[in-house]
Structures are given as structure tokens and as C-alpha cells.
């Protein structure tokens, strides 16, 4: 019964909030009366509140530009977690554009959709990302290429760092800064998450979205920690593979630190 009440209240908050914020975001995109990220951050915070999540932050987003943020990926909620705190733009797989609610939100924040299976289009997609970074957008790359269960980090795909190379080779920037970020779901109702309860937070592979959303709304009370590492410079001659391994190693260390000693819930 409590779960059903939570779902009703969460859905009501999201629906009412969206009816107000979506038109404002469209107006912002068409007129430029205010920063597009202003409404988006409010919208993300609304979703976080509806899901009952508490965010704990260590470090800050780098102010160096152009900036590519290399993050691990646990769930579709990662977008809301980061978007509620900092002004960033996301790089997402192409099929997300058709998802209910998430697809609409993605389009309203000018997400760059990439088709990883179509190698012919990868160059154009990387060029678009490079162009956006050169204009000052901080681009978030979920470098594993897929979601994990949150207990481990999948290998970072070096090909996904191609946008940094293109930004330099096309003369858009002399160097690109790449910042590692770890997103870790640590507690449920104040109790540390173990492997048994990890699926509540994690959204893995081709799992259907709506059942996972229902579980999150019914449970509530998730704590998530976000660690911002130190940005490193990627310049002409830098190796994508070495950079990918470095980012993977730093994100893994931050994830393990958060899991080993999760912050108290508040």
C-alpha cells in the first residue's frame, strides 16, 4: 500500500511539474530568454525529488574548456543525478530518443545521440560532439558504452574518446580536458546496498524502463554519491587507449572508495 502511494505521489509531481517546465524549456530554446540549462536543472531536481534520491557530492565539475566528462553508467537515473547539479550535455545511444519521458527530456537538452553500430556515421557524430565542446558545452560520455550493476566498472571504450581527437585535429581546440566522474548508488533507506538490492538502483542492459521506474518510485530512499576527479589534458599526440585506461582506473578507484565507506544518509 505504501509503495502504491509513493508511486501516485511521484507520478503526480512529475506530471504537474512537466506540464509547467516543458513549455518553458521550449520557449527558452526558441527565444534564448534564459539559459536552457536553467529549466533543465529544475526538471532534473524534480525527478530526483520524485524518486526520493539523496545526492552526496565530492569534488566539483572542472571549469576548464573544452571539457569531456568520462563517467561510469549504472542507470538511466545517472542523467538526472548529474543534470540536477551541473550544466552538462549528454551523449546517449540513439534508441533513447524514442523512450517515453526520457527521450523527450533528452531532446529538450540537445542530447547528442550516437549509433554505435553504424561505423559510417561515427565520424559525423564525433565531429558534432567536438563542435559542441568547442562552443563551451561540457559533454558527458558514459564511457563503458553500456550500464553495469554498479559493483564493478566495465572496460572504457577508447573509440568513444574520438571526439577529443577530432576537436584537436580540426583546429577547434589545442587540447581537450577530460574529467573522470564516478556515480555510485550506496544506500537504500539508510542501509548500505548489497548485491541483493543492487538491481533496485541498477538498470542493466535491455531491461524494460517502466518496470524499473515503478520499482524506484515505490521504494524511494536511495542515496547516490558523485565523485568528481581531476581533469587531465588531452592534446595532439595523446593516446586514446591510454586515456581510456587512465579514466577507467580513476573512476574504478572512486567507485570502490564510495562502496567501501558510503557516506551517512541524510
TrEMBL record:
The keyword Phosphoprotein does not apply. The keyword Lipid metabolism applies. Its main location: membrane. The chain crosses the membrane at residues 7-26. InterPro entries: Plipid/glycerol_acylTrfase. Residues 67-186 form the Phospholipid/glycerol acyltransferase domain. Its EC number is 2.3.1.51. Keywords: Acyltransferase, Lipid metabolism, Membrane, Transferase, Transmembrane, Transmembrane helix. PANTHER family: LYSOPHOSPHATIDYLCHOLINE ACYLTRANSFERASE (PTHR23063:SF52), PHOSPHOLIPID ACYLTRANSFERASE (PTHR23063). This is 1-acyl-sn-glycerol-3-phosphate acyltransferase. It comes from Mesorhizobium escarrei.
